[in-house]
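Figure 2 data, in text form.
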Amino acid sequence: MPEISSGAILGALITSGQNSRHQHSRHQHSQHQHTSAQTQPEHTQLLHTQSSQTLRQPVTQPVAALATGSHIDTVPNAGHYDGAYGVLAGLEVVRVLRDRKQLLDHPIEVIVFADEERTMVGCKAMAGNLGHDAEIYRSATGESIEHCLERVGGNWAQRIFARRTTADIAAFVELHVEQGPVLEAAQKDIGVVTGIVGQRRYMFTVTGCSSHAGTTPMPLRKDALVAASKLVLAIHELGQQPGDQVATVGQFQVSPNVANTIPGQVAFSLDIRDLDENHLDRLMAHLQEDMARIAAQTQTQIELSPLLYNHPSLANSHIQNTITQVCQNLSLSHMRLPSRASHDAQELARITDMGMIFVPSECGVSHSETEFTSPQQCVQGANVLLHTLLQLDQHYRCSP
C-alpha cells in the first residue's frame, strides 16, 4: 500500500516558510512557484506552468483529472501551514505514485491557486466566476490586477482560458489545516468537511442625535450607541440560537467619539456564516425584526448595507464517504464538520465534485507565526489525501 513518510513534506514546509510568506502581492507568485518545485526537486520534470499560473502534472489521457492543491499566499506575519501544506502534500502524492510507477485511470493535477486571502482570483478564474471588472481586484497597495499579472507573465484579457469544467476536472479534494479548535478539542485526527459555509457581511449605520451629555435628560435622548449596543447583543443572541451559525461584530465606530457628547452615529460590521442558506435567510429576517424593535425603543434610525454575499458550497457526499472510509482503513479518528473559513475549494465546487480534508491546528491558531500542526498530523492528512484520490480514481472510472 503506498504511504507518505514525513521527510519530504515536512522539509518542504519548513523551506517554504522562514517567515517569508505574506499577503499575496502577485509579483512574488513566480518565486513561490519556484520554491514549491525546488523543495521537491524530483518533481520538477513533471510540472509545468500554465498561463493561469498553476502547477500541474503533464497528462496525455483524454480524461478529466483528479485535482488537489491549495494556495501559497497568506496574511502578513503568518506561519508555514496555511495553504502551503495542501500544495506540498499534493506534490508528495504525485511523487509517491510516480516512484511506485502506479498507473491510474485519471491524471492527478496539483493546482497552486493565486491570492486566496484577498481576492480569490485564481480559483474564481478556474470556476469562470471572475467577472469582467478588473477594478474590484487590487493588491493591498492598490495596484491593478492587470499590472500585477503582467509582472508574472500573465494577462488579464486571457483569463477566460483559465476556466475549467467537469470535462477537465472530475473531482477536487483540498487538504488544509483546520484553522480552528474543533478537531483538537474533540481529539480527532482528521476532519471530513461537509461544506464551506455561506458568508454574509453587512455594515449597520445607527443614527440618533448628538447632544450635550450633561444637559440632555435621559428620556429625551436619541443615543445611537445605546441602540447599537442593544443590536450587538441581539446579534450575539442570534449566534447562540440552535444551529451551526456564527455571528461576529468585528468593527465598531462611534461618532463624534467625544467624552461629553451623546453619540449621534454608530457604524459597525456584521459577519454571519452558516452552511444552510435557508437558515441564514431566517436569521437575517429575525435580525431585521430586532432592528425595527430597537429603533422604535431608542428613537433612532438603523440602516443595513450588504457588503459581501457568498453562497455555501456543499462537499460532495460520495467524497465525504470516501474520506471517511479511508480514515477507517488507516485507523484514524475522524469527525464531520463544516469549514467556517473560505477556501479555494468553494469556487471549484461550482464546476465539479468537491471535498476537503482537515488536520488539527494546535490551539486553533492560524494566520499567525505560531500556527502549528504536528509532523505526525501532517503525514496523516497527506496519507488520507493519497488514498482518497486512489479510491476516487476507481469510482470515477466506473461512473458513467
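Caption note: Residues 375-398 form the longest helix (24 residues).
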